[in-house]
Design goal:
The structure is a homodimer.
Chain A (H helix, E strand, L loop, with lengths): L5 H17 L3 H6 L1 E10 L6 E5 H16 L2 E5 L6 E3 L2 E9 L3 E10 L2 E12 L25 H11 L8 E4 L3 H12 L4 E4 L7 H4 L11 H4 L16 H14 L4 E2 L2 E9 L4 E8 L2 E5 L3 E4 L21 E4 L13 E5 L3 H12 L3 E6 L4 E4 H9 L5 H5 L4 H9 L3 H18 L1 H9 L12 H8 L4 E4 L2 H6 L4 E4 L3 E5 L2 E4 L4 E3 L2 E4 L7 H7 L2 H7 L32 E3 L4 H20 L16
Parallel strand pairs in A: 1-7, 8-9, 8-14, 9-10, 14-25, 15-24, 16-17, 16-24, 17-20, 18-19
Antiparallel strand pairs in A: 1-2, 3-5, 4-5, 5-6, 6-7, 11-12, 12-13, 21-22, 22-23
Helix pairs in contact in A: 5-19, 10-13, 17-18
């Protein structure tokens, strides 16, 4: 008799689960979940990105989707073994639907599903050509007037967007647009990426000179080509810029630099967009079926309004337009804001010999970089994780398997550890007058990122300058008004200033849609980003997934893509599969399209 | 008691072997080899690339080197298990020398060493910064006027070769120079690569338009950045060109395009080269300590002399200068030669609508591409090999572990299989009048490559055109003379011709040294390439390794580097370590510096 290993036990469970699904017993399938169980689906079942919370939501989804999805073949993934620890059995799983192959992850507790992740890996008959199926390249055999690779590529470059329309148009050629463009290219979806800058990578190159990634290399890989072993942990901005540029080239993306999207409108009857772009000074009208905004998850710059902004005789910039410290040696600079950009800019200005004051209007969450790497990311994204066999793909999926509803519960203890480890640091920071918080529920940086995309700084050195007074700090005050050569604060302090930097963040991404399409469409889509956690800057009701990101919106064939490098990499897979299915005419019944609760 | 596994048995053997070496018992160590055993060393013991054949040569080497090398710590490599099959036990091994860490491979037969491979992996205290030791990138902390990565890189580009001399100068920026430059960069050896073309990759781009790699992707990776999973099996030339260009950029090589080396001389007293280069029209004098010629293993084009070459009114080109078929539609072309280039050019000309005749003067070895991939390379370099855990590094080392003296014995049965598999093809080819051979001893293509670097064609389709007469064939004849509009063959046939392509191969690489330095130095170095196998075009005496490649030559601080992508990748590691050691002042006593038996 076979020994009952965790793997055989999970397989037996999957057999039962699969049978319930195959026979349409949705109640039975739902009852195999814990009362507080979760099913997170990335496209495979819902043609959406959705988390079903509890048995009722699982059953409702199955009742709606099961007939079209037709899942079969649930297995513990080949080459993997289930593992047991602390009463939880977990395993990598594979399954098939009528149109796709899926990969996923399951956690069982007391014989019931605690978490289930299902993801679409590839569509049957539309698999990427890679590994055993990679293209031959050389054209063996012979034929008169055959075209070479280069001739075919030159033809594609010359024709796409001119005599032949792209199926998909991506506005914005940063890492988001590039990663998605690469995936679509591999799936054979004709795609153009338009980018306002002159070169791929310029969206990094053009930022302030001391900028480096705040996320470490293991978290930052693009699809298909990993950074090499000698790549720095935190890549400097120009180096990332160069990498993106080379990536765009070797992945053969149809990338239009120096191109601005001017206007877009959707013809519902034709199911087609009309997008006017200006390419190197010339207007071109494109007619894609799908339009993706990848213009930066940060949205448009927030510029605060203060009395006297028209009176002030010095320079005023949003942080996104700050050129770096060179021009400001010996100058007096006031930086309004206290999050990542504010800190980075203050430190670089101080290093460059400016006199800098940071105006902190509300509290900020700080984590030291090394601590965040060790405690926050180390288990999934680190050299040690790689050595332990946690590939980037696995790390992404493990991360994706944790339901947002309970993610803060996993995060809180990590941040308690950080607080402990860096106690002296936080004490010094508070002694310097800095207003510090850990998020509304103590869940720290990553939850702030997911909920509001702001409100923190990953300390790479600026805090010491705040602590020792090199960067002057005015905290707990607002800006009352500007005078000709100064900033007057709410407590009456007057700060002489040659330059004011507004490190005041960004609006919601649907602001881009308002500019490009119409306010009406932007309102129809609603706020982009956030979970609906009812914490600061992330108003409820609970939505359970990032609003409007990487999934269908209320505006037909309009999509939002982006995020950090991790998200650009991971979610581009699912967005690409959604677009590919639509191009191929595969039915894509969307389950649970999000409602709009906030316009921005 | 421990079970006696192959691993524990190999470890026990290594313990004995290590002890004999540690105690200076060279006779005892030598006696642990089979009478016909081999020790191939890549730099670790000999500071050379040498194969010791039989106990006497092993003992002699140890007597000369042991005192300085001081090897210790012989182990079966961590995470590896020894394997037994057909009476041979083999294992991956690690060891240390006084200055380095080594990696190797051992095969035991009847309790004695049949083959031993020792390679230098890294020098102690000079390890590459990668993985756990990768650079941080961002400069955490703070400091006034710190330079960014880009500023430092810009400084390096501006200074190296201008106000600061490179330690190493590489002439030739194809895959050879690029791979070596990348390794040296990672080891912190200041290096400039000069390349006559305008862009990295042009040495591929500028060749005839239908050219694709004849070696498959798994064999072709560069160091540090593997080709992605979607990369074609046989990359088209322009795609490889683009990859090399991006690689040069992201690996931060100091690559000078549009630069020609004009003249070089060596000052023995100063231990320094003076090299005059012309960079974008301006002469610059460089003073490197080490000079590497990576100008192509093919050496300078061989142009045959025929009576009437001054009379012929059409075009005459060496194959290396052939621009592709576009200009020759409807023209009559005679291609002199029947190896790879001749076939590729004939096929492309036929496809492009030219009337082509191939003049075959001597017999050629043909292997069909798919057959070569399956039978010749599949075990080490294929998708299946990757799936079996044979990484590129392991494949390179397994390949390196087979001594050249007996390599043909491994090859002959493979080519017998190929002959069997493609019998109908060879019959048809011979029926078409094509003169075919399998190498002097039936050992086929790879041995021809190692021995003479020529004499074969990997069939990707041209043979069918020869067989069906689309490419006209004249074989067993020479060229008697050229007339104004024709080529007269030795059998009296007169072929009308608008273009003559001389696909007549290349000379020895030391021809480059004659041009750049002096005939005297070229003669001192002698013939480059070949094993001394006493087969056609590879005259004896037996040398046992590729002459003058990747190792010290008779000319101090003059090196030759290159070969196919596999060799450029693998041997660049050992050449880079030899150069690094010299820069660091690590003693590098060279054992068994090769003698010169042939001047070219």
């Amino acid at each position: 008799m076979l020994e009952k290993t965790p793997t055989t036990r999970v397989q037996a469970f999957l057999d039962r689960f699969g049978k319930a699904l195959e026979t349409g017993k949705t109640d039975e399938a739902a009852s195999m979940f814990a009362e507080e169980g979760f099913w997170r689906d990335l496209v495979a079942f819902t043609w959406n990105i959705r988390t079903m919370e509890g048995r009722g939501e699982v059953r409702d989804m199955l009742n709606a989707q099961l007939k079209s999805v037709k899942p079969i073949g649930w297995k513990v993934a080949e080459g993997e073994e289930a593992a047991e620890a602390d009463g939880v059995t977990e395993a990598w799983i594979t399954f098939e639907t009528q149109v796709a192959r899926g990969y996923g992850h399951i956690r069982l507790k007391d014989g019931l599903i605690w978490t289930l992740l299902t993801t679409m890996a590839e569509q049957k008959g539309h698999e990427e050509k890679a590994g055993f199926t990679r293209p031959l390249g050389a054209k063996h055999g012979h034929g008169k007037d055959r075209k070479t690779w280069k001739e075919e590529r030159d033809d594609e470059v010359a024709e796409l967007g001119v005599s032949r329309q792209p199926y998909c148009l991506i506005i914005g050629g940063g890492q988001g647009g590039i990663a998605l463009g690469a995936r679509l290219g591999q799936l054979g979806v004709p795609t153009i990426i338009v980018e306002k800058n002159e070169r791929a990578g310029d969206s990094w190159r053009k930022r302030y000179k001391s900028l480096c990634l705040h996320d470490p290399v293991w978290y930052d890989h693009l699809p298909y080509i990993d950074f090499p072993k000698n790549w720095p942990v935190f890549a400097p901005k120009d180096k990332i810029g160069d990498w993106l540029e080379m990536y765009t080239k070797v992945m053969e993306l149809n990338y239009w630099p120096s191109t601005t999207a001017k206007k877009a409108s959707y013809d519902e009857k034709a199911g087609e967009w009309t997008v006017v772009v200006e390419r190197a000074g010339k207007e071109i009208t494109l007619k894609p079926k799908q339009l993706v905004l990848a213009t930066g998850m940060s949205g448009k710059p927030n510029l605060p309004k203060f009395r006297g902004q028209d009176v002030f005789k010095g320079e005023q910039q949003h942080s996104s337009a700050h050129p770096g410290p060179e021009r400001y040696r010996g100058k007096k600079v006031v930086v309004v804001g206290s999050n990542n950009s504010a800190h980075d800019i203050c430190a670089a200005l101080w290093e460059g010999g400016a006199d800098v004051t940071m105006v902190q209007r509300s509290s900020t969450h700080i984590v030291r970089s090394a601590t965040l790497m060790d405690i926050g990311l180390g288990a999934l994204y680190s050299e040690q994780a790689v050595a332990n066999g946690v590939t980037t793909r696995k790390a992404d999926l493990i991360f994706a398997s944790l339901p947002y509803r309970i993610l803060h519960e996993f995060q809180i203890p990590l941040y308690e550890q950080m607080r402990e480890r860096d106690k002296d640091f936080y004490d010094a920071l508070e002694k310097a007058g800095f207003m510090h918080d850990w998020g509304d529920d103590g869940s720290g940086l990553f939850m702030k990122y997911l909920r509001r995309g702001s409100g923190y700084y990953i300390d790479v050195g600026a805090c010491d300058l705040v602590i020792d007074g090199s960067i002057k700090l005015k905290s707990g005050v607002g800006v009352k008004e500007l005078k000709e050569h100064s900033v007057v604060l709410s407590d009456g302090t007057e700060l002489p200033a040659d330059l004011i930097v507004y490190a005041t963040g960004y609006g919601s991404m649907n602001g881009w849609a308002a500019d490009l399409i119409s306010q009406e469409v932007a309102d129809k889509v609603g706020k982009v980003w956030g979970l609906g956690s009812a914490t600061t800057k992330d108003p409820g009701p609970w939505e359970g997934e990032q609003r409007n990101m990487w999934k269908p919106t209320q505006a037909e064939n309009l999509w939002f893509h982006g995020g950090n490098l991790h998200q650009s990499r991971h979610y581009s897979q699912y967005l690409a599969l959604q677009l590919k299915a639509r191009m191929e005419g595969i039915p894509t019944p969307v389950y649970g399209l999000q409602q709009v609760h906030h316009k921005a």
